Every structure is written in C-alpha cells, then in structure tokens.
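Exercise 7.
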Amino acid sequence: MSLYNNHTGSRAGKTARNTVIVVLLLLFALATLFPIYFMVISSFGDPVEAGAVSYSIWPGKFTLESYSFFFNYSEYSYRWILNSTIVAGAVTITNVFFATLAGYAFSKLRFRGRGVLFSILLAAMMIPYQVTQVPLYILIVNTFHIENTYSALILPGLVTVYNIFLAKQFMSSIPTEIMESAKVEGCSQLQIFFRIIMPLSKTVMAVIAILTFMESWNTFFWPFLVTNTMDMQTIQVGLKNFRFANTTYFSPMMAGATISAVPMFILFFSLQKYFLEGVTVGAVKG
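Solution. The predicted structure, written as tokens, is:
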C-alpha cells in the first residue's frame, strides 16, 4: 500500500510539473506572438483613426483602406519592396556561395596559416556590428563614393564570418575518404567542391540562405545610413516615412510592416525544418 501511495504521489508530482511547464510555454508563446498579432490587427484599422494614434488590440472596424493607403501614399511603395528583394536576394546568393567556398577551404584543404587565419575570423565575430558601421560608412561614402546605390547596400554583406563558421563546422563532418576517392578518379579541387561537397552540404547551405535572407530583409540601420533618396530605400526604411512631427499614420505603417513580414512567414512555414537543423549545425565537432 505504501509503495502504491508513493508511486501515485510520484505520478501526481510529475503531472503537476508538466502542467506548470506547459503553462509557462503557453505564456511565452503568447508573449512572442502578441506583437505579430498586434501588427496584423492594427493594419486593418482606419487610416484616419490611425492619425490620432489610438492604440487598441481590436480596431473599431475592419477595412483594407490602410493597405490601399500604403501603396497610394507614395510612388515609391512598390520600389521599396523591389529594393529589399534585390538587396536581400543578392546578399543571400553571395553568402551561400562564398561561405561555402571558405568553409570548404578551412575544413578540407591544408595550407600554411589556416589555423591563424580562422582564429582571426573567429575573433572578428566578437566585434559588435555597430562598431564597424562608421569605418564602413567612411569607406563607402568618402573612398568609393557609391552611396545611395545598390552596391553600397550589398557589398558590406557579401559574406559574413558567422556563415563561414557554420559552413566550416558542417563540412568538417563530411568524411575525407570521399574526397580521396574523387582524387584517385582524377577530380580537381573545383570538381570535388561542385560535384561532391556542395550536394552533401545542401542542409547548411539552406540554413545560411534562410538566416541571411531574414537578416538582410529586416535590416534598417545600414540602408538608412547609406541611402538619401526615397527611390533607393528598402521597405524597412520606407516605413519611417509614415511618421511625421505631429502625427503618425499608424495603421498604414502596420500594413506596410505586415507586407514586409510576408516573406518571413513564407520562409518559416515552408522551410521550418531547416531552422531546427540550424540550431545544431554549428555544434558539429570539427
């Protein structure tokens, strides 16, 4: 009887702990999703009401006028979306290609100074993003004189150290015997890379593409810094044009934010398995 009571008490304790964990996770999920909910709900508000900055979690009426207002507000509304697509797409492609090449070199090729060079790259990861903005700005504006161009928006993000690190860690797990067999068959290093390494690295390449596209699409500070005309602004920078000294077109701004978030939703729900793999891809022992 005592054993039965102990067993029952243990089961009750586990059930209580599981209930607490579930409640905490639900609260955390609600806190995470609430800003998204507020953004979407606010986008269906009336543009006129929005001018009064009347914040509420449920609009007085549902209307699509704020979306119409967003696209009709400026002739550059479509251009902002196009600019973001061009910049994010170009940065994503270059990061996938160059990070994969660098990861292959650091993980599979033997050359003098490899360890020192990789250590320097890892040290560069420790430098805050904000610290490099002033030197980059001086380089873009005063040295190359390419401000307010696609080059200024794309070149600083051609490849990141973090993506090189991800690619290197993943490729370190690829058996070297496969490369040795390819060399016996007469394959060059480029043939090995394109025909063997890249097909085996689809997972890490997808992770790099997803994370890079999300970061580039959502970036505000750098595009705001190097663009000075509305036709070169990205969607994130363009949204600031709905804020004035005396009023803010809140609902149209939320409509634009919702439109800008659509690619992120598509990426997440269609490729969410790669997000889960991305959590552990950098933990592979090299």
